Amino acid sequence: MDAEIISVGTEIILGQITNTNARYLADQLRQLDIKSHWETTVDDHPSRIIEAIKQAEKRAHLIFICGGLGPTDDDVTMSSVASALDTELELDQDYWVKLQNDFAKRQVDLAPENIRQAYYLKGGEPLSNPVGLALGSMITQGHHTFVVLPGPPREFKAMVSNSLIPKLRQLTNGRTIMSANLHFVGYPESSLMDDINHLLEPYPEIIATSYVQPDETQVRLTVYDLAEEHAQKIINKASSVIIEKLGQYYFGTGENITLAGEVVQRLASHHYTISAAESLTGGLFQATLCSVPGASRVFEGGFVTYATQMKTQLLGIPSEFIEQYGVVSGEVAGAMAKMSAEKTGANIGIGFTGVAGPDTLDGHQVGEVWVGIQYDGQLIKRQLHLSQKMGREAIRRQSVQLGLLMLLHLLLHKTE
Amino acid sequence: MDAEIISVGTEIILGQITNTNARYLADQLRQLDIKSHWETTVDDHPSRIIEAIKQAEKRAHLIFICGGLGPTDDDVTMSSVASALDTELELDQDYWVKLQNDFAKRQVDLAPENIRQAYYLKGGEPLSNPVGLALGSMITQGHHTFVVLPGPPREFKAMVSNSLIPKLRQLTNGRTIMSANLHFVGYPESSLMDDINHLLEPYPEIIATSYVQPDETQVRLTVYDLAEEHAQKIINKASSVIIEKLGQYYFGTGENITLAGEVVQRLASHHYTISAAESLTGGLFQATLCSVPGASRVFEGGFVTYATQMKTQLLGIPSEFIEQYGVVSGEVAGAMAKMSAEKTGANIGIGFTGVAGPDTLDGHQVGEVWVGIQYDGQLIKRQLHLSQKMGREAIRRQSVQLGLLMLLHLLLHKTE
């Protein structure tokens, strides 16, 4: 069964709001394995809503029309859908009485025009709105099913998850889906997917999709319609093959994990604490660690030593040492790591120095970054080669992520 | 001239990413007074891209096709557009040579398939990509103009603002549009717009639209079709009325300004330097300052004192003092501000302490935050009352923004 989402809203067309409803619904449909190829958005205009529905009927069996169920004259969706489907609107009398009573009880005025929000498509059924006033509606005509949903994201999500999804499950009646979500950092998506698709050749049952986020790339492996145990086995086997080959970029599998969260958890399980001294990243490494609830178990404090003399003044790195190696060097990154751990009494220290741009520094190119880690008696130094084109912010963010990845791999190695 | 935006991307259709590009472009078109009624999204499939273009041709004269310009086999947009327009692809030879040289210089491999990103529509022109690899393209055929743009939001925005908008201005040639973009922090959008719409009642020529971003709310005042001088006068007058009334939330007017950028600029113009000591914000204030190019003029370094004993160990705040007032207090925020300035030799110090959650701390509620500022011989302490409902990340970000706003207002007061 193919689906199509039609969003209705002048404010979307004018760029005044981002259409998050379509994404939310599309994600729900994907999880139910309902395919979709088109999405359409039109402004609040009856003829365009009707035309969009006529178009969608040719392409899909399950059609969602979202937004424009408010009480004002601009809100023309329910009546436009009725007219496209050659049906009428029906007042949900019980609901309207209940609404009036609820408002009277709360001593809040209910405007007479709110009655418009108590109508649904005749021949279909109303969909209840757990957090707002407007009813939705669902109707089947021949091979097509039409669903009308409200626009405010809170109401939209509540109606989709409470009222709609159980009905969609009945419609699709029970395909089994098994999936795993693998997280990677520091490898371009196109190369990553080339490698993964190659590795997955022996697993034709698996569909791999990638999802690029600012700080990572997620790869979802999905298997449809196999017995649960068998599907799980295939996914586990394919995951191990991928992790074995691309382990240097991999940081975890799961739905809501972050690299910083993984590092905090590993540190905590070893009862380690960490400190940092940051130059180009300017505090972003520490802020990223602290974004993890419970970071205080592993992080007590650290330094931002943006200017060269602060590396001397706050950390006690001799200025001759910095002059000898240059402030953008593995030696200085290492000294920053070492001294931040020493000054705070942490088990581990990490130091970042480099050039975020826009200008070069002391003859070093934008994107040249050094990470130093003081860990378990060792001083590890690594140069990151980041592209100048990424821009200042992405260079700083990527430096933080790659520093976290180095830490995670050290901590994992420790475990094995 | 009517426009239509076609977004191409399986990851949008699958609900894996939110389509922020369409909103950004729609907002730009609105500012140029280019009307639009439809938006379409299709997955990465040639026949659907072609069908979407054929549909749009019937409804619009200016058609944007966005996304799918990567180097992989999934990226079929440019060739599909060429086929819909009955033209071919042309290699931008100079660009491809330049790309290869740039990569060679950085000793990074450029994959052979990246050559796909150096093609544009024959008969049209390439659009340069200031932050990525893929060229865009623009071509006019009869009454229609087609524009092909890349999918990654950073590249998309850069190409739209740098390469596309100047060309669109030529196309639309000559409606006069005058606008001002006012930036606010710390006041809910709905209250802000209620106040502003009320203040704008005497100015019916002005259309006010708001745009909520994670760290601020932008309000655009626009006047159409008035003589430039007159339009400017009305906008200036309305702006002053708004700023007078809502000045405590206002931080600037302009297209590409940020609160941190304004603070850095003011500090620099006074030849001030600033340091910080951060507890709940964990380095985010300093990282936000350092996100401004040229921050090194005003910021040399500072401290993250997440744990209580680090406030003693790194800053030298006596532990008895912290015990007396409690770690979540104006006094401790003030001492952090004072000591961070003292330890680094900065003119100004700022300290953040409070509860980001999810758990309460020492009997203080989530959302209780104190900011201290050591400035010009004074020690200023202010409590921020943030809503627990915002969640940990938003509490930390909002604390940073409100600290920056306090600083800006102190610095502006200094000037007057």
TrEMBL record, chains A, B:
Entry-linked SMART domains: MoCF_biosynth
Highest rank taxon of the organism: Bacteria
Domain MoaB/Mog: 4-171
Pfam family, one: MoCF_biosynth
Family affiliation: Belongs to the CinA family.
Listed name of the protein: Putative competence-damage inducible protein
Species annotation: Limosilactobacillus coleohominis
Gene symbol of the encoding locus: cinA
